[in-house]
Amino acid sequence: MAEDNFNTADISEEEEEGTKMSDDSDLKVELSVFRAQWMSELAPSTDNKKGLPSRSADLKRKQELAREEKASKLFLKAVEQEQNGAVYEAIKYYRRAMQLVPDIEFRINYTRSPDSDGVGMNYLEETDTDKEIDDLLSYFQQQLNLQEACLKICQPDIEMTQTHISALPMEVLMYIFRWVVSSDLDLRALEQLSLVCRGFYICARDPEIWRLACLRVWGRSCTKMVPFNSWREMFLERPRVRFDGVYISKNSYIRQGEQSLDGFYRAWHQVEYYRYFRFFPDGQVMMLTTPEDPLVIVPRLRNRNARMESLQFGHYRLSQDTDNQTKVFAVVSKKKVEKAPEYHNRYCNRCSPVQEAEHSFHMGLQLSSGGCQRFNKLNWIHHSCQITYRSTAETVVTAFDIDKTYTPLFFARVKSYTSLSEKPL
User: Is 263 exposed, middle or buried (CB count within 10 Å of its CB: 0-12, 13-18, 19+)?
Assistant: First the structure.
């Protein structure tokens, strides 16, 4: 009985080992099948590995475009709110737009409308109109005519208890503008005044103001504005001397000094001096030759009644030759100062003042432009001294050689020359 039991136990153990071996083999087969299926599923994905980045890039690009389009809508709506005066609402839309796209202000395309409901249409229309404007003056005139039936130059931004300048008649405004230009032809101030508003821009482009300025400069020789398109273009483009400053040149020469006491050497001196020219619109000119620095002399040349011993006064004219070169011819001399009659001798004979000779200087200069400024350079062409003896009516002319000592004169603008207006244009 004991042997039978032992044999049955051995058989059962063998059966259990066989079942374990079969289970292990089944697991290995299932694992190999799973691996094969997994590899088969991964195979197409590895083949299309190159297509995945492009799909993700396209998706990312679409998201960016949608975000930018939404930000542009918010930005244009903020612009519309700001134009309507709702500043706080505009700030909200600006903030939301910049949260989506920080640089939306530079990315936005103003030439197309991002939505169909007309958000920001006013701003887009104005921007498109600005690009198509060829004549700004006619555009401003049209805008003012469309605003109201009665033409008003400008409108106050805020409510005022005092009378606004727009209430003045057009004739009074134009007279004020002529005072701005003044008799000194300060057209620079007129151009700055035109930057105030559209109405002032129209007034500053009035042809009559520019025609009067051209007549003051060229006289009867500018009765027609051909070949220029306007009087303003003539004044800006045609060569002329400038009145809002002074032309200055620095000159120097070598002078022989006295011999030393022991006779071994002789000193040589380098002398430096300045020439100043101040032109006026009525044809008058002032010339001064002095060794003093421009910081001292320029303020003293502001008025025509300046009192300096070597100051000379005269007149000038512009001449344009066939070679299209504009020349300035000037004649200057010292002011005649009549001395009081002198009494001498014991018989108290009265002697009338007699001026022995009159000195006048004749100069020819060529007007040109240098650097970024226009008509700011005068080159010497001719310089002579004419002496007239009153007793004999004899005239002696002495011409000077134009050499290196005659350096060109360059223009320097002086703000104080046009700070006050003495007369209107």
Answer: exposed
Q: Which residues contact 103 (CB under 8 A, 6 or more apart)?
A: none
Please list, residue by residue across 224-255, b when 16 or more beta carbons sit within 10 angstroms of its beta carbon and e when fewer do.
ebeebeebbebbeebbbbbbbbbbbbeeeeee
Kindly list the distances between the CA atom of residue 183 and the CA atoms of 200, 337, 415, 425, in Å, as whole numbers in the listed order: 20, 28, 15, 5
Q: In this structure, what token pair is assigned to residue 201?
A: 């821009």
Sequence-ordered list of residues with C-beta below 8 angstroms from that of 248, at least 6 positions apart, any chain? 274, 275, 276, 277, 294, 409, 410, 412
Judged by phi (left if over 0) then psi (alpha if -120 to 50, else beta), residue 348 lies in left
Neighbouring-strand partners of residue 378 = 367, 409
pLDDT in tens, 91-145: 888 888 888 888 887 777 654 444 434 444 444 444 444 444 456 666 665 655 5
Looking at the DSSP bridge assignments, the partners of residue 275 are: 249, 289
8 A C-beta contact, residue 359 and residue 326: no
**Token couple for 397:** 């002319």
Q: Convert 135-144 to b/e letters by CB count within 10 Å (16 or more is b).
A: eeeeebbeeb
What is the average pLDDT score of the chain? 76
Residue length of the chain? 425
Distance CA 181, CA 188 (A): 8
CA distance 177 to 382: 40
In angstroms, the Cα distances linking 212 to 104, 137, 209, 405 are 50, 20, 5, 39
412 closest CA partner among 239, 253, 252, 275: 275
- Could you report the per-residue pLDDT of 265-301, keeping only the tens digit for each? 778 888 888 999 999 988 899 999 888 888 989 888 8
φ and ψ of 114, to 5 deg: -75, -20
Q: Taking residues 415-425, what's their average pLDDT? A: 84
Please give the Cα distance from 325 to 347 (Å, whole number).
62
From residue 362, give the alpha-carbon distance in Å to each of 5, 190, 251, 306, 341: 154, 35, 19, 22, 31
